[in-house]
Design a protein that fits this description.
The chain is mainly beta and about 100 residues long. It has a single domain (about 5-100), classed as Leucine-rich repeat, LRR (right-handed beta-alpha superhelix), CATH 3.80.10.10. The protein has 1 helix and 5 strands. A 5-stranded parallel beta sheet has the order 1-2-3-4-5, covered by helices on one side. α1 links the parallel β4 (about 75) and β5. It is globular and about 35 Å long. It starts with 5 loop residues before the first strand and ends with a strand.
Length: about 100
């Protein structure tokens, strides 16, 4: 799995992700939309190759600050998340990340 580049886990009723997710350092796209996630692991910030992240339509209550470490992130999908993420959005927009709300 260390060579994994795309991981699509949308629509699977997932409610927790393991910290080991952060070991997938070649991952470029991660789709987690339409699950039951209320948080993301802190290790998500280790996904330095990640370009696209979809966490839309999840009951997210907490996004770790480590997400701002994703230096290659270009697209973030947050559609349907009711949590106030304005400070996170501001930081990511300064990094030229395209955000879909």
């Amino acid at each position: 799995m260390s060579q994994l580049k795309l991981l699509y886990l949308s629509n699977n009723y997932i409610n927790i992700l393991p910290e080991s997710l952060g070991k997938l350092d070649l991952l470029t796209e991660l789709r987690l939309g339409d699950n039951l996630l209320n948080t993301l692991p802190e290790s998500i910030g280790n996904l330095t190759s990640l370009r696209r992240l979809d966490i839309g339509n999840n009951p997210i209550q907490r996004i770790p600050d480590s997400i701002t470490s994703l230096r290659n992130l270009s697209s973030l999908f947050l559609k349907g998340i009711n949590k106030d993420l304005s400070s996170l959005i501001k930081i990511l927009k300064q990094k030229k990340v395209s955000i879909t709300i």
